[in-house]
UniProtKB/TrEMBL annotation:
PANTHER family: XAA-PRO AMINOPEPTIDASE 3. It comes from Fimbriimonas ginsengisoli Gsoil 348. Belongs to the peptidase M24B family. GO terms for molecular function: manganese ion binding; metalloaminopeptidase activity. Signal peptide: none annotated. InterPro entries: Aminopep_P_N, Creatin/AminoP/Spt16_N, Creatinase/aminopeptidase-like, Pept_M24, Peptidase_M24B_aminopep-P_CS, X-Pro_dipept-like. This is Xaa-Pro aminopeptidase.
Length: 461
């Protein structure tokens, strides 16, 4: 019996120490990738350098209701940690904490039975070390102890702390403590935000897998919207449909507020109300996409509510499509980031001149007033860390033409807003369109719209 007890005691102790945090999915980024990223920043800080980064606080929506939490993207990029009120301390030369010499400390909210009952699971310090591979994790109430240890670093040079905009709650309290503590310290030459922006431009193979999943889920939403839309529907019905499809395909969130603009609303770049009753003859400019494990897609399609483009809608659409084709072709490794915009803008200008919508190329900005591209990644408008396209970068190509009622052109063009947007991966073999599954050609769109979609199924009462 004594031998059996002696055998069981270590197992029971191990069970008590094991993290209770549930892992529901196994396709997130490997913890080794996060470690490589932290080490890359540490190598740039130098042995006497240090960096302190904060994640986002929880944001209040109204009264006692908060928005669903989303971690700061730089913080997520370095740690994979998705809970609020956390601080990452990087000290390449090492600091002494609780008898250990460590180079990185992640301070987090601890889990307890009350928080789990009311708020759900927390990873806690033990879970962070075992599940995310961070060298040392501690309760965030011990930030002062970590700062005291860090302050003993000979010749310490601290990089400017990265604090999210408008910090509140515990994040504001902790960042204020850091600002007081660092007064008089020497500054590190490294701009951590710029260093991370440059790193984030180039996606690893593992990141590309997640970006593809976000794009594929987004494409599915666009397909169902094209099948389902019909006169008499509200814009919000299509919004609800696409967001359902994103979630059903594993997206935790939309990548940005869904834009479903019909008729006059198609000419508003970031129209988010999505309340109008759609009518026969309207064109819809639909900019909607999902976020999968933190990685965004950004996809736009424009199509007629009635299922068939009018001659005027088709003429504008074909110009935008040609411009997008030219922009995508320009997305080659080594090319300037602006290449897609230059190529697309030329086609747009030529097309509107030919139609008589403008009489001078300088008037193009009246109907095309935004850039053609931005990087995509952990943010839909991702960190812009390079003005040269590199293999492994992902960017959008999204030309558009927006002709509002009252514009100085023939009335037949009024209330036509067309944007076509895809997510383009720069590779050694040329650009790859990750969202190509959503049709772009007029004949393909009209053919798809002759099908019925899940949005046409009447709900039971």
């Amino acid at each position: 019996m004594a031998a059996l007890i002696g055998f069981l005691i270590p197992l029971l102790a191990q069970a008590q120490q094991a993290p209770t945090y549930p892992v529901f999915e196994n396709d997130k980024l490997p913890i080794s990738l996060y470690k490589q990223r932290r080490e890359a920043i540490e190598s740039q800080l130098g042995a006497s350098g240090a960096a302190i980064l904060f994640t986002n606080p929880e944001r209040n929506r109204t009264n006692d209701t908060d928005f669903r939490f989303r971690a700061d993207s730089n913080f997520l990029y370095l740690t994979g940690f998705e809970e609020p009120d956390a601080v990452l301390v990087l000290a390449p030369g090492g600091i002494d904490i609780d008898g250990r010499r460590v180079r990185e400390v992640l301070l987090v909210n601890e889990s307890n039975p009350t928080s789990e009952t009311w708020l759900g699971y927390r990873m806690g310090s033990q879970g962070v070390m075992s599940l995310l591979g961070v060298e040392l994790a501690l309760p965030n109430r011990r930030l002062g102890d970590v700062l005291e240890a860090l302050g003993k670093t000979p010749g310490l040079k601290l990089a400017r702390p990265l604090v999210p905009p408008d910090p509140s709650g515990l994040v504001a309290t902790m960042s204020n403590s850091v600002n007081e503590w660092r007064k008089g310290l020497a500054s590190n030459d490294l701009n951590v935000n710029s260093a991370l922006a440059k790193m984030r431009v180039i996606k690893s193979p593992e990141e590309i897998v997640l970006l593809r999943k976000a794009a594929e889920a987004s494409v599915m939403g666009h397909l169902e919207a094209m099948r389902s839309v019909q006169p008499g529907m509200r814009e919000y019905e299509i919004q609800a449909l696409v967001e359902y499809v994103f979630a059903r395909n594993g997206c935790e969130s939309v990548a940005y507020n869904s834009i479903v603009g019909s008729g006059p609303n198609s000419t508003i770049l970031h129209y988010e109300a999505d309340r109008r009753l759609m009518e026969k003859g309207d064109i819809v400019c639909m900019d909607v996409a999902g976020e999968y494990h933190g990685y965004a897609a950004d996809v736009t399609r424009s199509f007629p509510v009635s299922g068939k483009f009018s001659p005027e809608q088709k003429a504008i659409y074909e110009i935008v499509l040609a411009a997008q084709d030219a922009g995508i072709a320009a997305c080659k490794a080594g090319a300037p980031f602006s290449s897609a915009h230059v190529a697309a803008a030329k086609i747009l200008g030529d097309g509107l001149l030919k139609l008589g919508v403008i009489t001078d190329r300088n008037q193009l900005g009246r109907y095309f007033m935004h850039g053609t591209s931005h990087y995509v990644g952990l943010d839909v408008h991702d960190a812009h860390g390079d003005n040269t396209l590199r293999e492994g970068a992902e960017l959008t190509v999204e030309p558009g033409i927006y002709i509002k009622a009252g514009s100085p052109c023939d009335k037949k063009w009024w209330n036509i807003g067309v944007r076509i947007e895809d997510d383009i991966l720069v590779t050694a073999n040329g650009p790859v369109n990750l969202s190509a599954g959503a049709p772009r050609k007029v004949r393909d769109i009209e053919a798809l719209m002759r099908q019925r979609g899940i949005g046409n199924i009447r709900l039971r009462k």
